[in-house]
Amino acid sequence: MNFLKTAGIVVWLALLTGVGFLYSGLFDPAADAPHSRPVYWLMENIRHRGIESRVSGIKVPDLQNPELIRSGAGNYNAMCTSCHLKPGVADSEMHRGLYPQPPALAVVAPITPPEHAFWIIKHGIKASGMPAWGKSMDDQAIWGMVAFLQQLPTLTPEAYHEAVEQSAGHSHGQAETANRDSPEDEQDHDHGHDHPDAG
After folding, report:
1. CATH class for domain 66-192?
2. Lowest mean per-residue pLDDT among 108-117, 118-127, 140-149, 168-177
3. Chain centre to alpha carbon of residue 19
4. In angstroms, rounded to a whole number, what is the distance separating the alpha carbons of residues 115 and 2?
């Protein structure tokens, strides 16, 4: 009985401490103030386990398919370079300012399993700056980006430029057509995706 009473007191004290910390303003939410090691470790593990538990049913297509790779080149160039960079580019304003800092995918060999990369691109990551591209892209277009990411670290700046030139440019696949209900919607889409070359 004394044990239960003591445990209850400990739980209440922990809750009061947590609430007190929450309302104290001591936590610094600034992107230029890194998390402490314990907090960063906790967030990384929550993210990893959360993704791991959701990818078991994902079937990976042939990522060596040239058409798939080609489609991914145009989308990566339009949508990803400002954060994840491209061959020959060491930094960008967006890449420098985000925290956690996005991985420089042009120089880091892909260690993320393809099914994880697909899930991340489709669903995004909370409070990281990584959008859920599945809101506007179909799965085939997303797999194209995954396929291109497998090739990206091996490309020179010249080879990257050639791959982008040979692609169909920025396309969201069937989802793009489905989301256009009127000429006004199409005009808004074009203006909303007028991405500058972030290199």
Report:
1. mainly alpha
2. 168-177
3. 31
4. 50
The three-class DSSP label of residue 78 is helix
Rounded distance between C-alpha atoms, residue 55 and residue 105, angstroms: 21
Give tens-digit pLDDT for 119-140: 999 999 998 999 999 999 999 9
- Strand blocks (E) in 37-183: none
Alpha carbon distances (Å) from 76 to 7, 16, 180, 199: 53, 47, 22, 12
Give me the count of residues in the chain. 199
* Overall average pLDDT of the 28-56 stretch: 93
* pLDDT tens-digit readout, 158-192: 999 999 999 988 988 776 655 554 444 444 444 33
Give the residue extent of every domain in the chain: 66-192
pLDDT in tens, 62-79: 999 999 999 999 999 999
For tokens 């985000």, the residue is: 98
**Residues near 68 by Cβ (< 8 Å), separated by ≥ 6?**
61, 62, 140, 143, 144, 147
CA–CA gap between residue 71 and residue 94 (Å, rounded): 24
